[in-house]
């Protein structure tokens, strides 16, 4: 380490100069549309996750419902015994007043709907992730666009994304039929 270049390498000064000489990657001219589309898909996925969380909260509120909790139909003075607190007591009481014991059937239906929304929109969001170099089927589509709109990679990537979303959705539909047996259609004999 007698040379001054060795000291520069030791302190990292040479790496900083190499990084400043690296070519900067320009953003695509349509980055605003891609960003808006990514935000929209993120909002859809967030809505699906929120639906699942809401159905879990409803399940806990209904499972721990106590008729003596302060709620719409009971004027009790003590603290609620519902695990979700006062909000859970009021929510479970409102569901039971409006729909009766059948309100418990809303929970798995809502959970499966939210799970399906979150899953399919995640597949779509991962496809858009190719714009920021995260790979996936979106990279295949993007490579087709970069090669003067060469159609086979665009079609292959698009078909693979759609098939993956359909496969995951069909798996969730099958899971939903296992969890919710009342949704099965009866075959007339």
Sum up the structure in keywords.
about 65% helix; mainly alpha; 7 helices; about 190 residues; single chain
Give a description of the structure.
By secondary structure, the protein is an all-alpha fold. The protein has one domain (28-183). The chain is 67% helix and 0% strand. It is built from seven helices and no strands. The protein has helices spanning 4-11, 13-21, 31-63, 85-99, 106-128, 137-146, 151-179. The longest helix has 33 residues, at 31-63. The radius of gyration is 27 Å and the shape is elongated. 17% of the residues are buried. The mean pLDDT is 80.
- What is the helix tally? 7
Secondary structure: helix percent: 55-70%
Radius of gyration: 27 Å
* Model regions low in confidence, pLDDT < 50 over at least 5 residues: none
Task: Specify the biggest β-sheet.
Answer: none
How many distinct folded domains? Answer: 1
Q: Characterize the overall form.
A: elongated
First-residue to last-residue Cα separation:
90 Å
Q: Work out the strand percent.
A: under 5%
Mean pLDDT: 80
Number-wise, the strands total 0
Derived structural class: mainly alpha
H and E string: HHHHHHH
